[in-house]
Amino acid sequence: MxxxxxxxxxxxxxxxxxxxxxxxxAMDPRISRIITTTTRKMRSSEKPGVDxxxxxxxxxxxxxxxxxxxxxxxxxxxxxxxWRREVDEKSRSGKCALxxxxxxxxxxxxxxxxxxxxxxxLPPTMKxxxxxxxxxxxxxxxxxxxRIKMAEHEICQSKDFDYRIENHDVATTAAQILxxxxxxxxxREHF
Length: 191
What we know:
The protein has a five-stranded parallel beta sheet, sandwiched between helices. It has a four-stranded mixed beta sheet with strand order 4-3-6-5. With 191 residues, it is α/β, with parallel strands linked by helices. The chain has helices at 17-27, 57-65, 84-93, 103-110, 126-136, 141-157, 170-189; strands at 6-10, 32-34, 37-38, 53-54, 69-75, 78-83, 97-100, 116-122, 163-166. The model has no long low-confidence stretch (mean pLDDT 89). Strand 5 and strand 6 form a beta hairpin. It starts with 5 loop residues before the first strand and ends with a helix. It has a single domain, classed as Rossmann fold. Helix content is 45%, strand content 21%. It contains seven helices and nine strands, in the order E-H-E-E-E-H-E-E-H-E-H-E-H-H-E-H.
């Protein structure tokens, strides 16, 4: 990826990954976004091709068989994945790209992407995370409890990321990520 970096934003459900991603893109328009593909239902606030590529479960499994994804995972009964062609295009461009994904996706992609930098977003507390999940008003009680249990597991895995940032405030978190990324880019230019 030339001097570019693949910025990977990860963390548990409802930690603010999408909000931080949007803030980073607004703060630095030179960074492009890699859009994830999913089989989950589109939320009312989302736009296809902007927030996610939404495809059917059958189409997703066909694309898996054709090896079209750089990484994919099944999360809460839905598939999420990143098109191999999109990662390759961004890598060849030499610019910084940003990708939002779950921790399992990060670990898959990490094996093949030397220029990826993983940022794990932590909630201030588990109670804050639960409140964010409930505020969405999109999941059943059973799903919320399953997501909380998964979040606890993912937080334990966060030590394997390059950076861990507690997401108290979206703008502050985005600025921290851009500051770290800027330093990494400056260090690469000195080689």
